[in-house]
């Protein structure tokens, strides 16, 4: 368990944060006894639970492959997706699962698990309130769950977002209200130790210099998150694992 990343009261944002501060962030692993590895993540009001299952034998009849596979599924509770119809919910869940898989695959050493499949099942208990806003929490949660499951990887994968206001100010980890009023935004996931981007989603209009500044802000945010994710895993190692 890690302590929340508390916001200060010195900033100019509606919730009192500075432009480069996260909302309260919380991580905990080993939350699902039925899963090989699991994690619970909060980014402000966004709440995500992730379980990793497997490895299991691949059912695809394509012969031997020298790498394993990652199968990602994302579901939203009725509460988290109350404003969406069935078609919109299906599209959101599919898009979130694709983004999660893209963010994670480059970090995992799946060549060590030939013909095997790892299933990553994520449940958004409470959504971020804006398109793409759940991605950072999902990526952090899935990366922690995979590490908790003992799946070998090159690094932990943190993810976070940045919004650009109409006045050109860059805001780390935007609230739903900030994202709704933004002129542009981005979501980034990285391998911090390798300085490698695994996911980048950009929306709205950016000048080149603004985009560079936005990416640097998101990279700094991901570095902060990685440190807290590492602390969470180290704390879990000091605790006995409950029997399945």
From TrEMBL:
Compartments (UniProt record): Cytoplasm; Nucleus
Superkingdom of the organism of origin: Eukaryota
Pfam family, one: RNase_PH
GO MF term set: RNA binding
One GO term (biological process): rRNA processing
Signal peptide: none
Keywords, ordered alphabetically: Cytoplasm, Exosome, Nucleus, RNA-binding, rRNA processing
CDD domains, per the entry: RNase_PH_MTR3
Gene Ontology CC: one annotated term: nucleolus
Domain spans labelled Exoribonuclease phosphorolytic: 21-152, 168-219
Family to which this protein belongs: Belongs to the RNase PH family.
PANTHER family cross-referenced by the UniProt entry: EXOSOME COMPLEX COMPONENT, EXOSOME COMPLEX COMPONENT MTR3
Name listed for the protein in its UniProt record: Uncharacterized protein
Species this protein is from: Chlamydomonas schloesseri
């Amino acid at each position: 368990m890690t302590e929340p990343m508390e916001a200060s009261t010195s900033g100019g944002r509606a919730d009192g944060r500075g432009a480069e501060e996260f909302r309260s962030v919380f991580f905990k692993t080993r939350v699902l006894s039925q899963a090989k590895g699991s994690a619970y993540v909060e980014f402000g009001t966004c709440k995500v639970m992730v379980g990793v299952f497997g490895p299991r034998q691949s059912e695809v009849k394509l012969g031997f492959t020298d790498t394993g596979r990652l199968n990602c599924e994302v579901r939203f509770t009725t509460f988290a997706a109350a404003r969406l119809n069935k078609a919109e919910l299906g599209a959101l869940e599919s898009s979130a699962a694709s983004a999660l898989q893209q963010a994670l695959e480059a970090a995992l050493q799946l060549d060590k698990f030939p013909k095997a499949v790892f299933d990553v099942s994520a449940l958004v208990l409470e959504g971020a309130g804006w398109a793409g806003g759940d991605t950072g929490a999902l990526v952090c949660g899935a990366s922690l769950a995979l590490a908790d499951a003992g799946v070998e990887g090159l690094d932990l994968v943190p993810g976070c977002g940045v919004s650009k206001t109409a006045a050109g100010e860059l805001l780390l980890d935007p609230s739903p209200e900030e994202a709704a009023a933004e002129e542009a935004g981005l979501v980034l996931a990285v391998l911090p130790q390798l300085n490698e981007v695994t996911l980048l989603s950009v929306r709205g209009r950016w000048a080149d210099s603004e985009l560079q500044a936005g990416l640097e802000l998101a990279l700094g945010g991901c570095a902060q998150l990685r440190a807290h994710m590492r602390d969470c895993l180290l704390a879990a190692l000091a605790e006995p694992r409950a029997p399945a």
